[in-house]
């Protein structure tokens, strides 16, 4: 009887799956990949051999204001490894550089001091300048013209006024931008709410190219790369991480060329073939990405790619922060008809996209494909308001799934496990 471990918060939940019902486990090879070097060695070597740019220390010479865009609290970037090495590299070329970390919150809430310490360590939080982006603070936003899609490109003033703009981050599969990292540091990272909602409009989200692992022809990616170039993002240092949130690959240099190298490595490790099943169990990879229901949609899209029509998705996400998006939550609480909800989204002009509409659209799409049973610490009523069935353990969720499928004449349904739904590209 296979025993599968599923990340849940900072812990794991286990399930014994009967042999006759076990369809398989979809897991990225990254979790078994051994780079043979420490995280620090990987990042340092990447900084010493950038792709498509000079070394960062050379680029920093003569530059007074240097801004490092850094991910926020919702991203498991090993900044304790990356940030000190980037700082050392900049100061190697320019000891007097005025350096500021700009936290790319996108449209998320403000990152707390405790979260900054958890991300960077106490020394950097105590000794370095850190500014947290606010997508609604118009005094700190600058209009740089139009995106290829026609939307306004409005980004943080600190980035625009920097003599050298660089970014740290990580590359993973992304459910509508294709991949995280690289150009996403600017859009949505440090963009205005107006710019983000235009880029995440219904037509773009509905586009078949706006899917996990796809950049070719992806209108969201095209806008994002243009935004990064226009904001003069000159250099990135991105890593690929394993299930322990440790860097196993690092790349630095040009925002596009370095990112391409990083995602080529990622794809070599994380593409898995679909195994169509009536029950698919997925997660958001545990902490920090499973702190709320909003983010958990990402892990559900891995299940969406392989669950049979009318089947059941069991999603594990601690969600101790609750729903994670007020408008996202209210959209589902107030509209019980998913088809009407989807029709309303598609009828919304790009410049009138409501906040979180993109997440709601994708969530509605997958809810229309399968019933979702949600294991979490969130209140049952909240989970129900979001059109899901609450559960608090894997055996409870599986019993509910069996009951739902038995009513459809599907008994002893096959069970597919995806221990980390955000780390795989399901083909």
From TrEMBL:
One matching Pfam family is Lar_N
The cross-references to InterPro entries, in alphabetical order and at most eight, read: LarA-like (IPR048068), LarA-like_C (IPR043166), LarA-like_N (IPR018657), LarA_C (IPR048520), Ni_dep_LarA (IPR047926)
Signal sequence bounds: none
Which part of the chain is the LarA-like N-terminal domain? Answer: 8-213
Residue ranges annotated for the Lactate racemase C-terminal domain, each copy included: 272-426
Q: Which domain of life is it from?
A: Bacteria
State what protein this is by name: Nickel-dependent lactate racemase
Q: Which gene produces this protein?
A: larA
